[in-house]
Amino acid sequence: MPHSETIGIPEAELEGDIGTPDIDVMADIRDLVLKAEPLVKKYAWNDPLSRRELRIHFSTGINADWCRLDVTWYTSGAYKFHYTDENNHNWRFDRHPNTHSDEIHFHEPPDADSASAVNSCIAVTEPMLVARAVLKLWRRAVMTGSFDAVNTAQNPP
């Protein structure tokens, strides 16, 4: 799945309406990440006039010199947290109605394609708790240098 072509949850994976991107929640997530994570290099919106995705750039990744976490939170509570890096490794935590997995799921590395969806270890649904959980799991994977533990935790954060 070439991520550069996808903003938000891929339409082919959706079953039902998820509403529109929630800019206020994404701004709160941005503020939380900027405050909590010293490895943030910069952030940007996909388009300053039509903000649909928050892109957080980090100075390091999982066995990579850089990575990016692309976040879209929707008014319905659906979300996408998509990791991508210089080596084209991808994984995603998603919540949305679909026919390929449970509503809350994880798309495994290295490609994060639809077929790789498994149950997510993140059970919370409040935006700041989900963001903290994803950030904590990302940080652990960076520190261990392994993708193996990205989706293994007891209901983080």
Describe the structure.
With 157 residues, this protein is an alpha+beta fold. It has one domain. The protein is built from two helices and seven strands; from the N terminus they run αβββββββα. A hairpin with a 5-residue loop joins β3 (67-73) and β4 (79-85). α1 runs parallel beside α2 (127-144). The two termini are 28 Å apart. The mean pLDDT is 93.
Q: What percent of residues adopt helix (DSSP H or I)?
A: 10-25%
For the sheet with most strands, the description reads:
7 strands, antiparallel
Number of strands: 7
What's the helix count? 2
N-to-C SSE string, H for helix and E for strand: HEEEEEEEH
Instruction: Give me the Rg, rounded.
Output: 14 Å
Query: Overall 3D geometry?
Result: globular
Distance between the termini: 28 Å
Residue runs with pLDDT of under 50 for 5 or more positions = none
Mean pLDDT: 93
Key features?
157 residues; alpha+beta; seven-stranded antiparallel beta sheet
Brief summary of the model shown:
The chain is an alpha+beta fold and 157 residues long. It is built from 2 helices and 7 strands. The chain is 20% helix and 24% strand.
Topology:
Elements: H1 23-36, E1 40-45, E2 54-58, E3 67-73, E4 79-85, E5 90-95, E6 104-107, E7 117-119, H2 127-144
Helix pairs in contact: 1-2
